[in-house]
Every structure is written in C-alpha cells, then in structure tokens.
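Reviewer has doubts. Consider these tokens.
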Amino acid sequence: MTRGWSLRRWYLVVVGVMVAAVLGAVVVGALALNRLGEARALVVDQLDPASRQALVLSNALVNEETGIRGYVLARDQDFLQPYLDGKRQEAAAADSLRTLFVGELAGSATGLAEIEDSAQAWRSQYAQPVVEGTGSGAPELGKALFDQVRAKLAMQEADLAGARTSARAELATAGDQIVTVGLVLAGVLIALVVLLAVLSHLGVIRPVSRLVTEVRQVADGRFKHQVLGSGPREIVRLASDVDAMRLRILDELDAYQQLHQELTRSNSELEQFAYVASHDLQEPLRKVASFCQLLERRYKGQLDERADQYIGFAVDGAKRMQGLINDLLAFSRVGRVTREQVVIEAEAVLAAAKANLETAIEESGAEITAGPLPRVRGEVSLLTAVFQNLIGNAIKFRGQDPPRVSLTAERTGEFWTFTCADSGMGIEAEYAERIFVIFQRLHPKDAYPGTGIGLAMCRKIVEYHGGRIWLDATEGPGSTFRFTLPAIEENSEPEA
C-alpha cells in the first residue's frame, strides 16, 4: 500500500499519526483528570464539610434536649443555656448544610428538612411549652418526640456515610483510571514509535541503503551494474537519474576508449615513423656530410670565395640535420625502448651528468651545488639526461657572470620534488609551456647551439617515470625548474 509513496507523504503520515496519538492522549487524560477532579471536589468540598456540619447539627439538638431535661428536673433557668446555645448552633449548621446539599447531594436536603421539621415539632409540642410553663413536661412525650429527631439524624448520618463511601470509591477508581490511562498511553506511544521506526526502515532507510550499495558498485567501476530504486518516489527517481548517468558514462567511456585506442595506435605509428625515418636517414645524411667535408678540405682555396661559402653552408646544414635526427631518434626511444627501473642514488645520477658536461663546466666556470638528494627508482641513462639537459641549459643561457646552478630535493607527500635553479637570463612566464614543446626555440638558431628538443625530452622522461616537470616563473632571477619523482621506501638499497 505504501509502495511508491513520496517522502513528503511519508512525512505527513508520520506527523499525522503522532499528532493524532498526542491529541488522543490529551483528550483521554483530560477526561480522566476531570473525573478525578470531580470525585475529589465531591469528597473534599462537599461530603467532608457536610459530615462535620451534620455532626454539629446532631450535637446541637442533643444539647437542646439535654438542656430541656435538666430544666424539667431542676426548674433552674441556668439549665436552659445549653438549649438556647443548641438552637443557635442548629440554625448555623442547618444553613451550612443547605449550602452544601447541592449537585449530587441535593437529595440530602429533603432529609435535612425532615430533621428540621421533627426538631421543630419537638420544640413546639414539648420544649417550648416547658420553657413557657404551659406544658406538663412529661418525659415520655419529650422522649417520643426527640426519638423521631434521633431517627432522622441517624438516617442523615447513614446517607452521608454511604455517599462518602461511594465518593471515595469513585475517587479511588478515578485515580486507578489515571494510572491505567497513563500506562496504556505509554504502551500505545511505544508501540507507535516502534511501528513508525519499522515503517521508516522498510519505507525509507532500507531503500536508501540499497540505493547506496548499488551506487557504490557503480562508483567502484562496475558501470554495467544497473541501478534500481525502490521505496518512496524521490528515491526511485534518484535511482533512475543515477542509472541514466551511468548509461551516459558508459557511452562516453566507450567513446573515450575508442579514442584512446586510436590515439595509442596513432602515437605508436608516429613513434615508429620517427624512429624508422631518423634511423633510415642516418646513412644517406652521413654520406652527404662526409662528402661535403671532403669537398671542403680538398678544394678549399681552389674555388672562388662564394663557392667556399656554399660548401660551408652545405656542411653546416648536414651537421645540423644529423644532430636533429639523432635527437629525434633519442626522443622516440623514450618509453619505447625500456630497461628495468632500479633503485638509484640521485646524487650518482647528478655526478654522471656533471661528468658528461665537464668541458662546458670548465669553460664557463660554472658553479654547481647540490643539497642532499634521495634515492629514486628509474632508468639511470634517462634520469641522467634530465639532469644533464637542465644543467646544460643553465650553462648555455647564462649571463655575463659565471653560471651558478643549485639542485635540491624536498619530500612532498608521495613524491620527491627536485628543484634546479640557475642564475641565467631567465624565461618569461608566458613561455612556460612553449619551452616543453619539441623543436620550439625562444632564440634564433645561430644565437645558441642545440635543436630545441632538450626540455621536451625532459618532460617525456619525467612523465615516463610517473612525475611531472614545470617552470616556476615566480622564482628569480634566472630560471627555476621543478620536477617530481615517486618516492620509495627509505630502506630501499640502490642497485648496481
């Protein structure tokens, strides 16, 4: 019945049930408290005061009868004082009882009237004539008349006692009812809370948990797992939206996989073409360069000046082309011709790079300093090429003063960040990406030697090792290059 309910409907139902339960509890409790209050008011405010006043009335009449009896025996006016006091007390008690005999005690007013009538008959027929001296004062007559008063008083006392017993029983019943109602309401509320908890679990919590489980499976990479929703309408719609998103991801993933395969194939073909082209061009280019050099040595000075110049241009072009082809061949081999990566000391790699640049370092008077460098995993020849290119660029693009190069390393999370800072002419921030593109140069070819492939080679080598390299244009003067390499365990020993 609740299948397909919306969360709003669930909320309204839960709130409605709770409000109905609270209202029911308030109504039942109010009725029970009202009954208890009425029973208490009857006992405390009417019956107990009526009983006390009835006792006062009875005592007052007995005092009247005692005073008349004493007067009859002694004929002394002092003995009439109890009679006179009793009359005043009787009148006051009767007035109080009349004010109390209302509501449920209204029937007792008749008994009070009968008592007053009997007492009045006793006074008019016996007591008053005795006081006035007109009566005989026969005890038998007085006793007979006052026995009627006693009988009425006894009836009144019995009625009040019965009413008091009944009222106290009603008071006890009302109290027990309050306790019973409280216990029942507590049980109903507990049962309602349990029922609401069960319904919430079945209608909301369980569908949400099931949806979370299915969505987590998709998030873990199982994109072919269909996401189905159940329970409230919002959860079903959310599951439908997640499943639609899953289908879109599948479509885009298929497209990306096809694109990735195409790019992989294209890159492989390009690398193969670069390798084959550069390798196959080596021999004819070597012949051109060799014969141009032979022509230059043999016929130098025998031809005119312009011919010597042309031959020089041909030799220079052949050498430059040979350098480009060699660099292109080396670039294409990165990541294609691989060797086993081993744990190596970065300081040893730096030493190898400095040894390869020994001549340039001595000629330029370069000062190369390095802080403690860590152990890393990689190919020695490739990482040597990275250090060699960065230091070589610092020496090549130097200013008027001898170049100074500083190399440091710092642990940042799971990577080591290497920094190579120099005191050269520096690079503008707008060229921070262009300098890593193959064959891109910021200066004319005749100004500085090289093919413009060094930094592109560095990027390819660093990315092949799982890191990245960039120009930090915020540091200066000079150029500051940073590159990262994955960190290894501290206790890893370098391999030969």
The mean pLDDT is 78.
